[in-house]
Design a protein that fits this description.
single chain, five-stranded mixed beta sheet, binds 2-(butylsulfanyl)adenosine
């Protein structure tokens, strides 16, 4: 679970369950010291290091916190403190933000480095990604900060922004993230900082680490940090007694639902720095601090029925319909049951009183049944054997948890195919995003991709339908008014200009991804040549293997697919590689070797590279003395720039590149 959480950023149990398992292990190790193991997860702070970023060893380990799950444990913590300190002391209470820990290094008032927590001893240098976080000061305000210091905090994604971000991912056929924390972790690991910049990240700070503080307490340090321009959450509070600490925890248990970010608890810290050092640390966590974790929000309600949802890939998920209940501020009517094994393990029955929990996930989970309330004579719920959408017999791979519907004509699978067809790298009909495909499909306007090209204005104007969110808490109405209808029709019309390789990719032939589609288009030039190609001719192309070849042949042997292809052809889509695409009148970049690096304003890097190729030039990735130009965009690596200068390779901007081409063509 450590690996899933820290390395894959994809946990399969809730934090609460994890904490409980670890706690149990800790206790077992104390009870049976003969099984103590230096490699036990209790000895680690968790995590391992991703190779692609530079590794950096922290000046002081980034420890974790010991956890408390009850006020009794908070009081016991205070008792321990009292026994160790013979002076008065006070606490600082802070919210525990649920994101990704980061250490930021500042020198002479400027950010010089951002390092992830990694395994606690050292992490990855992600400075360029961190720089893109809007709320983070790259230069500090004022002058009263130490010459060199480190500040630690939590990178988070606000919940609303996370939801909007996830909806976009779904529309682009990308896997949504399970919760804001995973989305944040995934973002910090991205290699392109420009992509990170588009992610709605925020950063809240909670510790200043320095040799020359100029202040004596944590609370003071945070007030200074605020003045230097850091985001320190306003909830931070000094508490002189443990009763005040408990009041803070109780107060925020309800109020935290109104915050823009996820919080999973409260961190209680001894305020005075000298008392903190007197108390010291264990190998894992400071003795001067503790994290109170709020219980996962739980409710009890009745199971009314079970629906089976078929996904875009055919995968079947059981979903519980519940008697509406309020949980974490929203009314929940549905909960995921994941798969048959989980249903069996819960031994669910209709009309059972079930416990529903909301972890960080979008859809709540059923975590247990209250057996004392079980109605007499209830029977286990059998898992369906036929698809709930098309009645086809379901199948199950022995090594996978989910059943799936093998019927390619099953409605959700068709919707999936249409969504792929309109996606950016395929037909790029953006105006059909945001649930509009679903609306057109559900209203019977389209039942395959070819139908898109016969849509008329009067077919779809004022079309509307209400959709409910996955947990059943919100209803969204999708309605097509004049402007969106025109946009849709324009988008469909423009898609007829998409090149042959994009059309080929859009068809959704199994195993024919973007690159394979390009290769096929280049070699075969037209759809007819591909339709008539034999296995031998296909596999003669070096990148095409037996599996891809068989899949292509099976696709075009299918009567129904051929009908669609023919309708698309009649609609005017590009089913041939255009001559002018291949052979421009002039090839002004012939014999030139060009390196393109960085991000650009008017074009994507790929667009610039394909222009170079179209005009006869050669793209290469590394600079040598034979390089004709380095086209340098924003954020071109300093090493590349240096090398170009040393070898005397001309460095040109995007504008200069465009000018060279325009002058030559
Ligand atoms: S103090 C030595 N304060 O919780 C203690 N941590 O389990 C350093 N966290 O990795 C942590 N909010 O990422 C502290 N207000 C807060 C926090 C906080 C969230 C995270 C932090 C740390 C984890 C500890």
């Amino acid at each position: 679970h450590n690996y899933k959480y820290y390395v894959l950023a994809n946990p399969t149990i809730t934090d609460y369950q994890f904490d409980m398992l670890l706690k149990e292990l800790e206790q077992l190790e104390q009870q049976f010291p003969e099984f103590d193991d230096p490699n036990s997860p209790t000895k680690k702070v968790g995590g391992s290091i991703t190779k692609t970023f530079t590794h950096y060893t922290h000046s002081k380990p980034m420890l974790s916190l010991s956890n408390a799950y009850s006020m009794g444990e908070i009081r016991a913590f205070d008792e321990r403190i009292k026994r160790s300190i013979n002076s008065t002391y006070s606490y600082v209470c802070e919210l525990k933000f649920d994101g990704v820990a980061i250490a930021l290094h500042y020198e002479k008032g400027a950010l010089i480095r951002g390092v992830t927590r990694g395994d606690g001893i050292g992490g990855d240098v992600v400075t360029e990604n961190i720089r893109t976080i809007r709320s983070l000061p790259l230069k500090l305000r004022g002058t009263d900060h130490p010459e060199y210091f480190e500040i630690r905090g939590e990178v988070v994604m606000p919940v609303d922004a996370f939801q909007a971000f996830n909806e976009k991912r779904i529309l682009n056929n990308e896997q949504p993230f399970a919760n804001p924390r995973n989305a944040t972790a995934g973002s910090l690991k991205l290699q392109e900082s420009s992509t990170v910049a588009k992610r709605p990240l925020d950063c809240l700070l909670y510790a200043v680490v320095t040799e020359e503080p100029g202040f004596t307490s944590h609370y003071e340090s945070m007030q200074h940090a605020k003045k230097w321009g850091f985001k320190v959450h306003e909830s931070i509070k000094r508490c002189s007694t443990i009763e005040n600490v408990i009041a803070f925890i109780n107060d925020w248990e309800i109020k935290r639902a109104t915050l823009p970010f996820d919080t999973d608890g409260v961190v209680v810290k001894i305020d005075d720095f000298s008392l903190q050092s007197a108390l010291g640390n264990t190998s894992k966590s400071p003795r001067w601090a503790i994290a109170y974790k709020y219980p996962a929000e739980k409710a009890i309600t009745r199971l009314l029925s079970v629906d089976y949802q078929v996904g875009r890939t055919g995968s079947v998920t059981p979903v519980a319909n519940l008697s509406p209940v309020t949980l974490a501020g929203t009314v929940v009517k549905r909960a995921s049951l994941h798969n048959e094994d989980i249903m069996k393990k819960l031994d669910l029955r209709i009309n059972d009183s079930v416990y529903v929990e909301k972890g960080g996930e979008i859809i709540p989970k059923i975590t247990g049944v209250e057996l004392s309330l079980r109605p007499a004579n209830s029977k286990p719920i059998p898992f369906i054997t036929k698809c709930s959408e098309c009645n086809t017999e379901l199948l199950k791979d022995p090594d996978k948890a989910n059943h799936y519907c093998p019927n390619e004509a099953c409605p959700p699978r068709i919707k999936g195919a249409i969504e792929h067809f309109i996606s950016r790298k395929a037909m790029d009909i953006r105006s059909l995003g945001e649930g509009k495909v679903e609306l057109l499909f559900d209203k019977g306007i389209i039942s395959n991709v070819a139908d898109l090209y016969s849509i008329a204005y009067h077919d779809i104007i004022n079309l509307e339908k209400a959709y409910s969110s996955p947990d059943g808490s919100k209803i969204r109405v999708v309605k097509l008014k004049e402007k969106s209808v025109n946009n849709i029709l324009d988008g469909i019309e423009q898609s007829k200009q998409r090149p042959f390789e994009a059309v080929l990719f859009a068809l959704g032939i199994r195993h024919v991804g973007e690159t394979t589609a390009k290769i096929l288009a280049m070699h075969f030039k037209s759809i007819d040549n591909i339709i008539h190609a034999s296995t031998e001719t296909l596999t003669a192309v070096s990148e095409i293997g037996e599996v891809i070849a068989q899949s292509i042949i099976a696709f075009f042997a299918d009567e129904q697919y051929m009908q669609i292809v023919n309708r698309l052809r009649n609609a005017g889509l590009n089913f041939e590689k255009k001559m002018e695409e291949e052979q421009p009148e002039t090839k002004p970049l012939l014999d030139m070797t060009i390196v393109v690096s960085g991000t650009f304003v008017n074009f994507s890097r790929e667009e610039i590279q394909s222009t170079i190729e179209r005009l006869g030039g050669k793209n290469v990735s590394s600079i040598s003395k034979n390089t004709t130009y380095l086209v340098a965009g924003n954020k071109t690596g300093p090493a590349k720039m240096e090398k170009a200068k040393t070898l005397g390779v001309p460095i040109i901007s995007e504008d200069q590149f465009i000018k060279i081409i325009n002058d030559a063509t």
